[in-house]
Amino acid sequence: MYSSSFFDGNLYDFSDKEPQRAPIGVFDSGVGGLTVLRQLYRQLPNESIIYLGDTARLPYGIRSQAEILQFAREILTWMQQQRVKMVVMACNTSSALALEIVRKEFDIPILGVILPGAKAAVQQGKRIGVIATAATAKSNAYKNAILEIDPRAQVWQVSCPEFVPIVEENRIHEPYTTEVARSYLEPLLQQEIDTLVYGCTHYPLLAPVLRSLLPPQVKLVDPAVHTVVACAQELDLLGLNNTHPPLPTRFVVSGCPQQFAQSGVHWLGHTPMVEVVLFPDIAVTPLQQDFVG
């Protein structure tokens, strides 16, 4: 189902006297951030959420820092216009390349996924593998965060450029995916890692494939779980916990709403109602025309 008007202005019209009722904004390049959304549902069931997938410009992992920073600024500006009370940057690439910069530019709490993931990793093991997008791996964000927390840890990173397209195209269970995953994991297995960090929010969706290729003693770390723990702590600190029933989650994409809905149903258990938002550098396609909100 797709819509540009399902969520009318009154539904998300929050009084300044009740900021706790405002939604949490969550964004990613595509469906990967739904792993964070599912954790929000589990850990913070009273919170209303606006989810934005910047699907017109994915994958982020091959983008430059300047591009990622531009995208983050545009999305955060849009989120502020929706009057969200907090933003979860459910994207490792954005967290690695833009988080510290935009935190200084926007007067709203912004949480990333890397520090919570790094903290969880060092609690699990000392020989830590990180699978990530090319941009995240190149940034050394996880390696630096892990070593800052525990200098005794050893960290190996592998860039996995094919994983995001595989997940977005729902090709997880194809034999080709297993072969690709095996090639990415081989150098980490040679290092006898005891912990593997999902360095991209898309990757937990590949868990069945990865688990089948890893020794049983290797622990998997999903930063999404720990990011939402940090989110809960921040809401407590700010006194912004919502005690009212949550509003329906609002799904917005910058690309094709049909494709997002078809991919999202596998992770949400239902077909989401999807709106379209256009950013300045994105041209309207015929498939978007009727859904622009």
Count of the separate structural domains:
2
The helix count comes to 12
Note the beta-strand portion: 5-15%
Structural class: alpha/beta
The termini sit apart by 14 Å
Give the tally of β-strands.
Answer: 10
Overall spatial form: globular
Q: Give the rounded overall mean pLDDT.
A: 92
Poorly predicted parts: 1-10
Helical content class: 40-55%
Please provide the ordered H/E string of secondary-structure elements.
EHEHEHHEHEHHEHHEHEHEHE
The biggest sheet, with number of strands, parallel, antiparallel or mixed sense and barrel status, is: 6 strands, parallel
**Physical arrangement of strands within the biggest beta sheet:** 4-3-1-2-9-10
CATH class of the largest domain: Alpha Beta
> Based on the structure given, which CATH architecture of the largest domain is correct?
3-Layer(aba) Sandwich
Query: Which fold name fills CATH's third level, the topology of the largest domain?
Result: Rossmann fold
Radius of gyration, in Å, reads: 18 Å
Protein name: Glutamate racemase
Function: Provides the (R)-glutamate required for cell wall biosynthesis.
Keywords: Cell shape, Cell wall biogenesis/degradation, Isomerase, Peptidoglycan synthesis
Family: Belongs to the aspartate/glutamate racemases family.
